[in-house]
Amino acid sequence: MIHQACIACGEKYGADEILYSCRRCGDLLEVKYDYDVMEEKLKKSDWQSLPLSVWRYKDFMPIKVSSKIVSLNEGGTGLHSCQRLANLLGVKQLYVKNEGENPTGSFKDRGMTVGVTKAVELNMETVICASTGNTSASLAAYAAKAGLQCIVLIPSGKIAYGKLAQAMVYGAKIVQIRGNFDQALKMVLELSEKHREIYLLNSINPYRLEGQRSLAYEICDQLNREAPDRVILPVGNAGNISAMWKGFTEFHKLGLINKLPKMTGIQAEGAAPIAQAIKKGSNEIVPIDQPETIATAIRIGAPVSWKKAIRAIGESKGTAETVTDEEILEAQKMLARSEGLFVEPASASSIAGLKKLFESGKIDEDEVVVCVTTGHGLKDPDIIMKISEKPFEVDAEMVSIEKLLGLTLPIPATMVSG
Ligand code: F0G
Predict the structure, then answer these.
(1) Could you tell me if the CB of 132 is within 6 A of ligand 1?
(2) Which atom of ligand 1 is the closest one to the Cα of 135?
(3) Which pTM value belongs to this model?
């Protein structure tokens, strides 16, 4: 039987109970399955012949009625073999799982297709989230598709324009708070506890994270049922690293892969409570009051899923690292120019992290590495306009363009023939 359970005290709750933390001890919840039942279901299912997508893994998902699924065709993103970038960095084999290819341009769609479907199953009419941008864009889209009201709380002036535009066009009620993401999250949590008709879809809701496990499943399937040696991903509120680890361990438990990857989380230097805890060898984080980074998606000082993330890193023998804003921007450009992949700054932190860990000898050159790039570059064009060389401007005359491009005058035809 599918149910919810507390990650600390193990207290069990029904699958349809609406709660966001353990009533007994206050800790995080997770969705639990009977894997023998799941295995039987998988044996009878044609899942392996379905195209790559979140719903190829329907038998792994805590959803009861297929007809209620709210989908925009999420998942099935490219696992790009990045040899040119690998050569630049000095590693042998590098893949980039490019989550910007999802319907609203980020990995959040994997969680929202499941989370909003759960909201529909529970007959909720209003959904809410706090967001640094991508979660709000994604929730607004899936709420629109499902015909639900959507409320989003965002830190005023601190989310990339593309993401704000998305939430606006999908018709969410947008509340900008004069505060940061951590404060916004506290407020939506309080609101949804107090007004039970509002369903919270931040990653503290364990159902949302269930959809994000599909990121791990897809990587294994794209590597022909093999796990990579290491997965490197940006960490903000820490839901994704926890969800991916759960996904890998489940594939392992079900005998679909025979090893597990080292989970490696990257945080921006000014917003790195988890990476700092890992570096100190501590199992507790010290929240950061005023997190700061140009990678606004991961500008988070008190990650709600920190405990699950530290567990994932520990169990997988992975690690965590911090990168500076400069390193993030350099990595963003490097990935775009060597591989044609344009990702937002938070996403580029996975590449920056790989570079740093490899250069300091913490990653072996033989490791098969998958870097997850979590959101599309077009969500935050402002940063590129600010830091890039401006385009050239000339009169609309051939001679000016040739001069600018340094093209020599062509040899006259009479001289060539004569
Ligand atoms: N990358 C991007 C592009 C993100 O938008 C986020 C989180 C992360 C990485 C970190 O993922 O929180 O699961 O550790 N964005 C959230 C939001 C907080 O509101 O869009 P995480």
Answers:
(1) yes
(2) 20
(3) 0.96
